[in-house]
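Late entry, evening session. Most of the bench is empty. Finally got around to the prediction I had been postponing all week. Sequence below, unchanged from the version circulated by S.P.
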Amino acid sequence: MTDPTSSPAAATSASNAPIDTQFLESLIGYNARRAALAVIEQFLKHMAVHELRPVSFSVLSLIKHNPGITSSQLCTTLGILPPNLVGLIKPLVKRALIERRPHPHDGRAMALHLTATGQRVMTQAEHTATELELQATAKLSPTERKNLLQLLKKVYA
């Protein structure tokens, strides 16, 4: 005896039935991931001109706003393992976006700084990111956007 739900006709009619996503939509992780995917898709498209991905953008932004930051500080702030950060830093150095300098207070550490090229790229990239964030949250009021940011920070802090 064949299973009636395995027939092509059953699959067709089943595919027209509404999908119950109620449980998934009650989960913060599911909704956060869906929102992140929507934002990241646009981010990747618009940051391609700068050859930046989300994590390299984050690294460069932290260096821009914290000149002299160390690799250890970057790892702690972004939750990245040191071997993974090395793989992110090398291409940025090769592209002449950042440079390593001796740390003024810790002879064992290297301080990371943006180059002039890195400054130009990040000024443009941060402007692009700000515009993308505003587009992604266009359905929210400024207060809702502010509240969303505060609530998300509470979840991961």
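Two things to note before I forget:
The chain is about 65% helix and 10% strand.
Strands lie at 69-70, 98-102, 110-114.
Will write this up properly tomorrow.
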